[in-house]
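Example pasted here:
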Amino acid sequence: MGLETKPLSTLHEKASHEVGDFDVPTGREEEWRFTPLRRLRGLHNGTAEAHGKVVVEAEAAPEATVETVGRDDPRLGRAYVPSDRVSAQAWSSFAHATVVTVPKEAVASAPTVLRLRGEDSSAAAYGHTTVILEPFAEATVVLAHRGSATYADNVEFIVGDGARLSVISLQDWADDSVHVSHQHARLGRDARFVSHNISLGGDLVRISPSVAYDAPGGDAAMYGVYFADGGQHLEHRLLVDHSQPNCRSRVDYRGALQGQDAHAVWIGDVIIRVAAEGTDTYELNRNLVLTDGTRVDSVPNLEILTGEVAGAGHASASGRLDDEHLFYLQARGITFDDARRMVVRGFLGQLIERIEVPEVREKVADAIEAELDRGAGRR
């Protein structure tokens, strides 16, 4: 499990399970330049005290199994090799892992829900989760994060040939929490993967979702909703690595920001390697700035190493509420705060409506309403 390199790409060149293979970040590196390292509480440099606790409670679908296993379980680490120091630290430090398995051709009749509850943010906790869908299985998995924690983890999704997996990851932490997570999916032939990342709570949340293809025909859709309030740092760093022919990917992340020093970061990296002819990919990030004093960094990157693609593109836009939209609504007797609320609902609601689990969808919609209530009267 030594150092691995990807010499054909200028993005994400290093991967290793060993913490020592990665330099301690200084903040000058491309992958760390937007992250306030001082707020990571030592997760990045090995100084964090590792006696924190995050409890995992599982509610499995009848067709799925959920196990707590030790570090030596051979199913762990099959799909993902850490690509930065925090991820390698999480791999080296977890004591037990959660493994979800859906057997071949099974169609889950209900979501499998993993509730991760932090009990103390004063010390670090580390975790690992592996979700395995055997060929032609179908399932929905919910990762619900709450409580107070300083937490780093890795999550692997192994989607077998012809399988269909939908994942909803809800970051609804308490205000004092720090969460750094890598969520990696590997897709088999003709596999379908859909992810929803919703980041609402926490002091600093940095989520790195990624997708790789093991065979032709894979299809990935990655959606994200986030709402950064005053002082919050919410960061999403995506990677879609097209290395197989005739695969597809779609990315759509949208966020809103309000309050002094609210900061949202979105990095979208797509690599189309030489062998990935027939790739069809598009990524989009949009941010709605609701008040002064916020900051948005949005960086799409597309690296194409073959001329034979079906489609490849990206777009990024960040801006304030449209004055014409607000004027139109206010001219019809709607107050400024209500007009603001309607515009934000429409902007984020298009992605919220895609969430397949009604309870989660309603919870996210209610959380957005609560954020808008806190921002009422601000301009």
